[in-house]
Design a protein that fits this description.
- This protein is mainly α and about 130 residues long.
- It has one domain.
- About 75% of the residues lie in helices and about 0% in strands.
- The protein contains 4 helices and no strands.
- Helix 1 packs antiparallel against helix 2.
- The longest helix is centred in the middle third of the chain and has 30 residues.
Amino acid sequence: MCIYLFLAGMLCFLLGLAHSILGEYLIFKTMRMKGQLVPSKSAGLKERHVRILWATWHMASFFGWGIGAMLVYTATESDVLHIASTHFLLQTIFWCMLCSSVLVLVGTKGKHPGWAVLFLISILTAIGYLNYV
């Protein structure tokens, strides 16, 4: 088992969980009318825009969990995987996480801690890739 890929995968799961929970608490709580699952009110946005922001917010968590599952599977089942496909998968995940890290870093001027977790996931994936080769 590749511990680096396993840790990167687990960080993806934790980041997605924190992202959804904190987003609901810090952002969408005040936009939701009592008894509603999907928020619909905002001072400056139309209802349909608030609803799609909410859906997109949670899609990011789902995508993170999907990537985490791929990393954990790759870490634990490396002996049955096709090498070329796995190299492509790990390189793609590395670049997606690295670029996402830079995007969050620049977009929030370093004030959002998510950039550091995304960067750590990219580094662990790169180390896991190097150990996989």
